[in-house]
Amino acid sequence: MLSEERYSMIINFLEDKKAVTVTELAKWLGTSESTVRRDLNALHDMGKLNKVHGGATAIDEKVNAIEEDVQSKSLKNVEEKKLLARYAATLVNDDDVVYVDAGTTTLMFVEALSPNTRALFVTNGIAHAKKLIQKGLKAYIIGGQIKLSTEAVIGAEAINSLRKYNFTKCFMGTNGISVESGLTTPDLEEALVKKEACSHSYITYVLADHTKFKTVSSITFALLSRCCVITDKLTDNKFRDHTVIKEVEQ
Amino acid sequence: MLSEERYSMIINFLEDKKAVTVTELAKWLGTSESTVRRDLNALHDMGKLNKVHGGATAIDEKVNAIEEDVQSKSLKNVEEKKLLARYAATLVNDDDVVYVDAGTTTLMFVEALSPNTRALFVTNGIAHAKKLIQKGLKAYIIGGQIKLSTEAVIGAEAINSLRKYNFTKCFMGTNGISVESGLTTPDLEEALVKKEACSHSYITYVLADHTKFKTVSSITFALLSRCCVITDKLTDNKFRDHTVIKEVEQ
DNA sequence: TTTGCTACAATCAAAAATAATCAAAATAAT
DNA sequence: ATTATTTTGATTATTTTTGATTGTAGCAAA
Question: Searching chain B, which residue's CA lies closest to the CA of residue A50?
Fold first, then answer.
């Protein structure tokens, strides 16, 4: 039997039953569990099913629709980003006032948040605001102009909005991290908002996967010395001399 | 059995029975109490149920109920609303500064807008903001707390945000229209925002299909005399004595 | 309050499932 | 026909899940 045949049999099975175990499939397909696992991995990489311990479950169309809705512009390093997001989510306490910067990495952070937290969230991301309230969390959005490409609120009005707040923690994304230039991003307007947000926060956490290191964009919005960087893999230890680094174990 | 299967069995059980004990579940699922406890913790962390001593209870599904409510509401009189929306969209000129109120009818208004207009839009609706920029229009969102059920920005911060603006036109939805009480809505916070928006606008247009007439909700946010009402079918001509009415031909 | 009972989280060892590895089998290429 | 490549199933070490156990905490009756 061709592997493609097994693939479609597995998908059909899942569409009907919603969940299946590896053992079940091995027996049903008359093949070994090793092969079934390989098939499940392949289908998972294609995004055709959810792999879970013991087997697989059908993809929830609702989730799919939402994923589409969030024009996830960079499907790069998704797993790494999720890792950072999950760790960052654990840093939020009930009494925190948290600023969430717009961006794809921080959106995963919002997804990873516990629905039970009583913290207060402020964001400049349209998608972030929507997700936060869908989780039943208390959320504020800052006012101002909306940038088309990133769905982020920016501009003078946004900066003015931010002045009112005092955050205990703020979670930022970034385009580049370097020892010399600190945290950098290509858009001036966004950089100004980021800068203002950081300056109103007691702690600034930066979520940056390993690809962001030693990259420099045109505008610096924060210096390393004032931030705590959360990353998946630190390739150069010299960063440790300039900032607090949390390397999340996989 | 996959843990995901147990999860959904527990959720289904709870949806039906509203409450369940650990012992019950262990027997029903044919598993140990330890596992059931672990499952309940996991589901609690996901926000899918309330953990209580001895077991768990179904979550108060306000969110879901309201979402459905909004959806069914938005499905009512769709054609009539689209008619109003299309007409209202023609009222926007390139040099206008337009406020768009949150709500299902005004969302259709946004959909009906020409992507070529150079008007400036300000809104308190998350969905509205998103749609506006997706159309490539210049859009601002006001800052403030986000209301879960309607995805509208409300609260003191929202009102403060509005103070800065001077609108040439504002487009409002409403729950009720009556000669005596004017325009009314059930939510105080939303009413205050609507009121503030109207008071900063040169003209206020109210989009109201025929079902809204002679309905009164608890809070009045504007009087008929100060508005221009756009509707699909006017059943009682006495309204013409109190306000400017545009009856859109279908 | 105290007492007794039950439920709980934490811990641990057994069981199950997994990824990684490798040799055999099947398939394709020369 | 022979060689190279891919696929498969078995084996291994590792990880995850599970159920039993234990001490602690919560609850209700005395």
Answer: B4
